[in-house]
Amino acid sequence: MASMKLPDSAPSPTQDCERLSRALQGRGGADENLIVWILGHRNAFQRKEIKETYQRLYKESIIDRLHSKLSGVLKKAMVLWMNEAPERDAMLAHEAFKRRWKRVNQLQALVEIACASSPQHLIAVRRAYCSLYECSLEEDIISNVSTSLQKLLVSLVSSYRHDQGLVDLNIAKSEAAKLHEAIEKKQFDNDDVVWILATRNLFQLKATFECYRQLYKVAIDQAINSSGNGELSFMLRAVILCIDSPEKHFADVMEKLVIKASTVYQWSTDMDSLTRAIVTRAEIDMKKIKGEYFKMSNTNLDDVVTREVSGVYRDFLMALIGGKF
Known about the structure:
Structural class: mainly alpha
Helix content: over 70%
Order of helices and strands: HHHHHHHHHHHHHHHHEEHHHH
Number of helices: 20
Strand content: under 5%
Largest sheet: 2 strands, antiparallel
Strand order of the largest sheet: 1-2
């Protein structure tokens, strides 16, 4: 469920564009508060109308205007928010590749694209990626990602899962056993593991994960966590959570941003992961994510963002998660 609070009676796209134009042309800089107030309370359809109307009225892209007038993390978050979902995810994937030091928490954006959305969305992202960057996702994975992760990531982004609820319990039990054997032997790049996770439909995989839990008395993500702590095991755990419970995965992403040092909690500097989680899920399942976050940390996500993030960027994130600011 989405978390954003929309106005009971939204202004017309023309009215929104006129106010945004004034906010983006101020001599003392952009009126960031007004921009956040408007765009942080418009859904995807309304934002698309605003983009089209702004282009028609002012003969320029509002995304380009936002990019030139805003700065820092607010600019990045707002530009992502104003793009269509496929283009947004393509940009996030490309940003992960561009990093000089590619950490798995950034590369897991690829897992989220492949496993926490529909097969149709994945195809749309792949098309958008080719259009924006004149190469395929698969090509950039091979060129930019460590060898240990290439087979899994290429398989995930190039697959097309059947999206109907067909489940064969015999296959689920058989493949649970194959996964267990590979995990016990720490063979995380085993061909069976990659093939099962990259090609089976989500309903079949959820049945397999449940069979694993019943047969071996442990959740499969916990088994992987106990068996290895390398990049591949981290990525496999993200795959399983994105398939089995996307809201738990994204709550986990945000929970890890708070680092426990003795008895003191400090907000990490990885604002990109926070932006990615909130911007991409605000209109999908943010209410569920907030519930899972509370279960994990016994803390409201609203309170953490209010306490640890500052300025207009905080106000924008609070708008997307449905908090008060």
